[in-house]
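Record 1 of the preview.
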Amino acid sequence: MAQKKRKTSLLFDHLESGELAEHLTYLEYRSFSKILFQDYHSFVMHGCTVDNPILERFITLFNSVSQWVQLMVLSKPTAQQRAQVITRFVMVAQVWESLTELLTSVGNYSQYRRRFSECLGFKFPILGVHLKDLVAVHVALPDWLDRAHTRLNGTKMQQLFVILNELVLVQSIRPPFEANPDLLNLLMVSLDQYQTEDEIYQLSLQREPRNKSAPSSPTSSTPTPTPPPAIIEEWAAAPKPKPDQALVRKHIEKMVESVFRNFDVDGDGHISQEEFKIIRNNFPYLCKFGDLDENQ
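->
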C-alpha cells in the first residue's frame, strides 16, 4: 500500500526543503507557460521587455526569489534564527550549486545545451540562453533573400522554428509532482514584495549594525562581490519594476482565502491573533498586513 503523503504546511518554517523547491519550480513553470510567440517576437525586435508584460512578469519572478530569500533572513531578530533560515535555503539551493559549471558561457553555453538536449520528460530552460539565440539569428540573417521581398529566407525560418519549437515542447510537459494551490497562493504574495537594494541594505544594518569605522552605506571601497555566472545577462539584470497593484491585490485575496481554508477550522470567519502572527512571518515587510485587523 502506498504511503499517504503528509499534508503540506503553509508555514515556511515547517516546510521541507524539497517541498519548497518543488513549489518554486512550479511557480516558474506556470509563469513560463504563459509566454506566447508574440512575446518572444517583441523581445527580439526591441531587445528588451518593453510593452511585454508576460515576459517581464516571468523575469520579475525569476529575480524575486533572491530578494525574498534576503527578506526572510532579515525578518529574524537573532543571528541564530537568521542562520537557521540561511541553512534551510542552502538545502533548497544545493542542487543549483552543483550546476554552476553547467551554466558557464564557455563554448556558447555548450555544456548547458548538451545537457538540456539530453534531458527527457520535464525540464526547465535557462530562458536567457534561448532568447540570446533568437536575437542572434534575427540579427545575423535577413528575412528575405531578395530586395523585392519575394523569396523568404528559409534557413532563418528553420533556425527560428527549432528554437521556438523546443520552448513550446517544454511548456507542454507538466512538472512530475502535484503543487498545493494554497501554498502557491502564499508564495506568490511573498514574491510580490518589493524592496530596493538600498532598502534591503538598510534592513541588514538594523539587524547587524556596522562598527563606526565601517561605511554606513555601500561605497566604492566596498569589496567587489564575485560576479554571477554570465548566463544572468541583461534580460534578468533589468531593474525590477514596481508591482502591478491590481495583480498584487488579486494574489493577496487568494492568499487570504487559502489561509482561512486551512486555519479557520471552526468556520466562524475568524482566526486567532496567535495564528495571524505566525502566518504573518511568511510575509516579512509586507505593509498590507499593517492594515488588517488581527482577528478578521
